[in-house]
Amino acid sequence: MPELVLRNVRPWGGAAVDLRVAGGRITSMFPHDADDPRALTGAPDTVFVDGRGLLGLPGFVNAHAHLDKSWLGLPWVSYGGEATTEGRIRHERAHRDELGIPSVATTTTLLTKMVSLGTTAFRSHVDVDLGVGLDGIRHVRDAVAGIGAPVGLEVVAFPQDGVLRRPGVLDLLDRAAAEGADHIGGLDPASIDRDPVGQLDALFGIADRRGVGVDIHLHDGGELGAFQYELIVERTRALGLAGRVNIAHGFAIGDVQAVRQRALVEAVADAGITITTVAPVNAPRLPLTELREAGVSVGLGTDGIRDLWGPYGDGDMLRLATRMAQLAGWRRDEDLEAAVRIASSDAAPFVGREVHDLVVGAAADVVLVDAANVQEALVEAPPRQLVISGGVVVVDALSGGEQGGRAARPVL
Amino acid sequence: MPELVLRNVRPWGGAAVDLRVAGGRITSMFPHDADDPRALTGAPDTVFVDGRGLLGLPGFVNAHAHLDKSWLGLPWVSYGGEATTEGRIRHERAHRDELGIPSVATTTTLLTKMVSLGTTAFRSHVDVDLGVGLDGIRHVRDAVAGIGAPVGLEVVAFPQDGVLRRPGVLDLLDRAAAEGADHIGGLDPASIDRDPVGQLDALFGIADRRGVGVDIHLHDGGELGAFQYELIVERTRALGLAGRVNIAHGFAIGDVQAVRQRALVEAVADAGITITTVAPVNAPRLPLTELREAGVSVGLGTDGIRDLWGPYGDGDMLRLATRMAQLAGWRRDEDLEAAVRIASSDAAPFVGREVHDLVVGAAADVVLVDAANVQEALVEAPPRQLVISGGVVVVDALSGGEQGGRAARPVL
Asked: Which residue in the set B281, B310, B375 is minimally distant from A281, CB to CB?
């Protein structure tokens, strides 16, 4: 991987800097100066990119993806399932084979779109069930490996079709954990598996034994969902899994009375549980301000995109951050910046990184957009002028960025 | 205005057609055939555009705009108001002068952005108050007249700062109606003016006397809002104003119990009242499916964009239609198409048109996007490849669309 010098970018809208990249990481960063020899020298194959004073952000982090599910790139698939979680599960199981899902090809199409839009690290749920076994995980890993640039990936082995109600799935999850999945997933222990204690005990048992994380889809609302929040809190505490357990969706915390919500927020914060949201517009709104004030790490993800669950999703994390900020009712500058940070730098823990930002030592994941400040980047979600993932230029709309003939050759 | 021939476009994703435009209207439309003489002939100044088989939609209709309020194009304005309607009104009145709002210049900037994204007709509320008087209406009309293409405009004289509580505003509204405003507006008769019956009687009095429409901002929720729905229904019926009265926002109908909601939907339908929404994600969701099933005309609008009420808004009606569809929980193909129709053809009545579609006799307002079908156009909201408003090409990203040297010269 050749060295890269990125010149004249404004990290988070601040003063312009130059930065040098080697081995996929940012190795130095200093004020932009056209004549600074540190930005002018390099090995014969060093790539120089002129950032033209654009606003620089770290790559976006998609903390809740389903990289295995999409039919993007295939002819349009009309939605035909029933309007319930169970109906959608059935619909997906009935039709995925005819679409060739999961596969490396479909995952690559989706991944290409999202990386092009600046997402450089993913936590992806990948279906694990009696039909596909662990094939989906292999497909997703192969697709990520084949994209042409280092892209961050954490895999959640996700029992989309249920756990206890499908004998054999627990063994699959256990094997996935043994074979390197970063987390095991769960799904509505009450409404799908009909045994909240049973599913959670089984999942936490594997997590404890294998040393992996837990990342549970919890759609159940109201008191039923709140009860499962409590069960998850209890097990996280008992097993000392602070920082290793995530609740995805978790609508219930937005669906109970204020005093109950406050207690749940405190319990989640105290247990060190994180929350991921896909910023849905037709579900109870999470108390994002309260969660952040309590110190809960909140991650943002796209959920599935154009799959058998529904036709939506453009894969743009910046636009999704706009929607999340609107859902939260945020309007002040510091809140708008916080929304972009949730979608990028603050999401480091969701993809197993210590740090993820435009700082020395971090992975060289950089997105450039034409915006006066980070607030404008959020509300406008402008086209991505440059995307660098792990030190490799994947998108370069800055024509003529060459210097001395050593131009970037974008891989996408 | 020269004739225009638009070739090889797929209206609503159907079979490719050619269409001819004269005097700003679609004068003929026939199956696309490379050798059809009807598509090859014209006066010396006839403009020919090759639509390349792209998907064609009618221009979008923004049924709830505030063309006078935006600071778009000025340096970023940090939001500083309080988080209430009253707080935001105060904030706007305190700061608009220093930003030069309202003005032809700021309106033109916003309008240019929205027309570029394919909106070709607007119903715009324009602030009328003791500070600006009727100046804002003049600015908006001047900006629209200066945009370089025929753009549809209906003006609502909007008492943003209140009606009864500001003696003199009723006279301004009456004058606005006398001088050509299409509608007079209102604002939360209960929570802002503190006299729902008084405000509504006064507004309906002017509408009745001057023969203009009524378009009322109603944010009030729950039973307070529902009561004002009833007051509006009663006055609409009493004065025979079916089809002339619109409730904007109207959160209350999404905020009451199911049985009460059903009664309100029926009353609104029966009285011939229309509803406009800006598809807000942090307010009670309107029962869009139920309203449509009851035959209520629903219009979609952007609301204010980057103004002293908040920093959001990218002006893209197609993307807004996506959000509306998601709010409504629509996933089936026919519902996705319905969402695009709400944002375009179905909105004809909101801008005083009999018909607004890709049909002979309609205004030649055309948007081309690269999408397989209208559903994909909705979920992806792709870049606008061509925008024609009133027969004039305003955006043309189809380089090389020339034929015989008579290329379109886009005005924006």
From this structure: B281
